[in-house]
Sequence to fold (214 residues):
Amino acid sequence: MYRGLCNARLVNAVPAIPSWTLASLPKSFNEQQLASLLQSFDLSTSIGRRDYAIALCLIGLGLRSNEVAALSLDEIDWRKGVLRIHHGKGQRINLLPLSADTGRAIALYIRHDRPPTQQRNVFVRHVAPIGEPIKSCAIQAIIRRAFKHSGITTPFMGSHMLRHTAATRMVQAGVSIKEVADILGHRSINTTCIYAKVDLPTLSSVAMPWPEVQ
Fold:
């Protein structure tokens, strides 16, 4: 201070707040919020039923918005109840189980609501240009609109939050981290390890007892 090398307020001497790897918890929605989200879709309209099926793909399968947009009719194996999802630049193929609710919503949309088109994408536009594949940015807008209509107040309303929620629900249901990594298409299991912190029952079983003050 006397030599003029630092400010008199010593601001530069204040230590930085450490930011530890995996220190935060992944943000996710609870079951009540998810129920409110799904109830916000107008199932009396073709667009509402399409958007509802899209939301189930995000919530139930943990897909990215671009993966839902790219989902093809040829990638659904109805007999085996699985989807073939292509991940990353290397186009790695991942087989995902298709739940009854999600499969039913997709099937009803394809049979009764999907506009006639030569496109093989499952989800297509219902306004001009009708029948063209829906884009990932449109899926993100659909989810943001649904959260707004549901009345949920949270700063995290993007479609990627539903992917975090899907992973959190799987871990809390007892699915192993390796299986979650495979479903999400993570190349490294280290990317998925953050979800281990949301499994509170398992964490409590390995936590050391806190020493009591004598």
Observations:
- The beta strands are 76-77, 82-87, 92-97.
- The chain has a mean pLDDT of 82.
- The chain is about 40% helix and 5% strand.
- The domain at 28-198 is CATH 1.10.443.10 (hpI Integrase; Chain A).
